[in-house]
Design a protein that fits this description.
Layout: E1 6-11, E2 13-17, E3 21-27, E4 38-46, E5 56-61, E6 64-72, E7 75-79, E8 84-87, E9 92-96, E10 101-107, E11 114-122, E12 133-137, E13 144-147, E14 150-156, E15 158-159, E16 162-163, E17 172-179, E18 184-187, E19 194-201, E20 204-205, E21 209-210, E22 214-218, E23 224-227, E24 233-240, E25 248-250, E26 253-255, H1 258-269
């Protein structure tokens, strides 16, 4: 079996977003600007309300999907299409910004732990201006499968012919995996897909060790084989089919050309982003 090796290991940078939410940005940095089709990956996590209480007040998006996975905590989503949803422990919020949406994500707690991830998934050119949509995915409907030495939570994509509820507009998978010490996990991968692993507890070994709070980018040929030694580990495993299209960014907008970004800003300023 041809097994993938690590191409690059990245550690995120501490930053803030929204109205002052402290977080770690792992994809979307000078070291790893993007990993087609993934535009951004943020990890947020704190017991200190000052790190999250300001939340993410109303702001616009166009041209991609946001996938928010809440490990712990409660945040409320509201958007310009009239959607509302409560993100709670283990749940996922899947929003397709498409041609344009204005939304907010605000905490529904004033103390305790908030912890999770937000991933930006690019939309192909033909779907940049698709109709916006929003889906709440409660923890109870996300399949979780035990295997010798651990368990896997299938947020999107397939594992052992079981499909997760997340429904992307391009080929991708998103799994959350718990692996006990002295154990291993393997799965087939599509050749040519970009795949990364982010370790949020413990450490793992592929062809070399991946420490806590590190992201490993794998080469794009072969299957996956992961081991643990002395640590229990938790990590997200995410892969996607590259779009291989031009990417133009402008803050909350991601399109294919600079002109399309300028148009998005104009539409927002003129009240035409959301129709």
């Amino acid at each position: 079996m041809n097994v993938r090796k690590i191409k690059k290991i990245v550690r995120g940078i501490e930053t803030s977003d929204g109205a002052g939410v402290n977080l770690t940005r792992i994809i979307g940095t000078p070291e790893l600007n993007m990993l087609d089709p993934f535009l951004l990956l943020d990890e947020f996590g704190s017991n200190n309300p000052n790190d999250y209480i300001a939340g993410f007040p109303s702001h616009p998006h166009r041209g991609f999907e946001t996938i928010t996975y809440m490990l712990n905590g409660k945040f409320r989503h509201k958007d310009s299409a009239g959607n509302q949803g409560l993100l709670s422990d283990g749940s996922v919020q899947w929003m397709t910004a498409g041609r344009g949406v204005i939304h907010s994500e605000m905490p529904e707690q004033t103390e305790g732990l908030v912890r999770g991830f937000q991933l930006w998934l690019n939309l192909p050119k033909r779907l940049k201006m698709t109709t916006p949509s929003y889906h709440d995915i409660p923890n109870e409907i996300i399949p979780q499968i035990d295997f010798p030495g651990g368990k896997i939570k299938i947020i999107s994509g397939k594992f052992q012919n079981i499909t997760g509820p997340g429904n992307p507009h391009t080929g991708m998978f998103y799994h959350d995996i718990t692996l006990n010490k002295d154990s291993n996990f393997s799965m087939p991968l599509n050749d040519g897909w970009n795949v990364f692993i982010y370790v949020y507890e413990g450490s793992i070994v592929i062809n070399k060790k991946v420490q806590y709070k590190n992201l490993a980018v794998l080469n794009n040929i072969g299957d996956l084989e992961i081991f643990t030694k002395n640590d229990n580990a938790k990590f997200i495993l995410i892969g996607g089919e590259p779009l291989n299209e031009p990417v133009a960014r402008g803050g909350p907008f991601v399109m294919n050309t600079k002109q399309e970004i300028l148009q998005a800003f104009s539409d927002y300023q003129n009240g035409e982003l959301v129709k």
